[in-house]
Specification:
Elements (H helix, E strand, L loop, with lengths): L5 H4 L13 H4 L2 H33 L2 E4 L5 E4 L6 E3 L2 H9 L6 E3 L24 H6 L4 E5 L6 H8 L4 E4 L3 H15 L3 H22 L6 E4 L2 E2 L2 E2 L6 H9 L2 E2 L10 E2 L1 H4 L6 E5 L6 H6 L7 H4 L3 E4 L10 H16 L2
Parallel strand pairs: 3-4, 3-5, 5-6, 7-10, 7-12, 12-13
Antiparallel strand pairs: 1-2, 8-9, 9-11
């Protein structure tokens, strides 16, 4: 930096090296040109130094470059401390990894863990407020691949906010998302330990249900139109792990919208309804066509924990709860 300002930092009374020349020589066009060239070079060096410092500062601020689950290169801080989670599942995962204190923003309808509700919401998960996100000055935004082509992602990239995208296809994908979030948080050890414990709990359920009949069930996400879980949905895998079989497991979409004509021939033994929702057997009996299902007529219902909806560590809580209810319903 001294090169850029050499004349101003000399000791009092000192003269620059060209001061030994006569005043006439200083006025010579060639001499003036040489001085101008020197000063220009000094300015270029100063600008280069500033540029290097900016680059080094950026490298220090974003100390890691990772690849997220959709193949994007993302520069992240060594240890993110201002995290915005654009899905309730991601909020649950960050808290389960022990980084809840670093969460500065959540989305509407985040209910788990209870302490997360105290964090400010940036709006609906699929259509969050960009102004609310940027106001929180996050050093990491987590979102699912359902938003990977969204305007939200593109805008956040444009303003320089790091965004890490995860996926959750199937139960294995849900486990992988925990590992990916741990990687983004630079806490791989915590993620590996958490996944190990979750898998152990899953295997315990599978072992308890091994050798038992796997009754057919229908998960009713919404009745009009009927939305349920199909192939690729992590809930489909959870249902199987709990000791049942989703009658819509063969449908090609993870969350298909289907007609009752598709479901009636499959005749599920039980309906899976979400505890706390406004869908109940009495309502279904009043809807056209639903009485064709014996499970509706006989009101064979298993109420599952709403945490079954979240591709996060809490899904194993729902798995254990559902399995216990299934054992009770089957009388084993």
């Amino acid at each position: 930096m001294a090169l850029a300002s050499a004349p101003s930092v000399m000791p009092s009374g000192a003269r620059p090296f060209w001061g030994a020349r006569s005043e006439a020589s200083l006025l010579h066009p060639g001499t003036c040109g040489a001085i101008g060239t020197l000063r220009s070079a000094q300015g270029d060096i100063a600008h280069a130094i500033v540029l290097v410092l900016v680059v080094l500062g950026t490298a220090l601020a974003w100390g890691r470059t990772l690849t997220d689950e959709v193949g994007r290169k993302v520069s992240l801080a060594e240890h993110p401390h201002r995290i915005v989670c654009l899905a309730p599942s991601l909020t649950i995962t960050v808290y389960a990894l022990g980084h809840g204190a670093d969460v500065v923003g959540i989305t509407d309808y985040t209910t788990y863990p209870p302490e997360a509700r105290q964090k400010p919401s940036v709006g609906a998960g699929l259509t969050p407020s960009l102004e609310a996100i940027t106001a929180l000055k996050p050093d990491l935004v987590l979102l699912f691949d359902t938003m990977s082509g969204s305007d939200t992602l593109r805008t956040l990239e444009r303003v320089g906010i790091p965004v890490f995208v995860v996926t959750a296809t199937g139960l294995e994908g849900a486990y992988r998302s925990v590992v990916s979030v741990g990687n983004a948080l630079n806490d791989d050890a915590a993620a590996a330990d958490l996944v190990r414990r979750l898998r152990a709990r899953e295997q315990k359920v599978r072992q308890r249900m091994a050798g038992r009949p796997h009754p057919g069930v229908l998960l009713v996400v919404w009745p009009e139109p009927l939305v349920t879980a199909g192939r690729g949905a992590f809930i489909t895998d959870l249902i199987e792990a709990a000791g049942a079989h989703s009658v819509t497991a063969d449908l090609p979409q993870p969350w298909p919208q289907v007609t009752l004509e598709t479901v009636v021939p499959r005749q599920p033994k039980y309906l899976l309804l979400i505890r706390g929702s406004n869908v109940d057997p009495e309502r279904l009996q009043k809807l056209p066509g639903w009485s064709a299902l014996e499970a509706v007529r006989r009101q064979r219902v298993i109420w599952v924990d709403d945490r079954i909806y979240y591709a996060s560590p809490s899904m194993i809580d729902a798995l254990e709860d559902f399995s216990q209810q299934l054992v009770a319903a089957e009388g084993h």
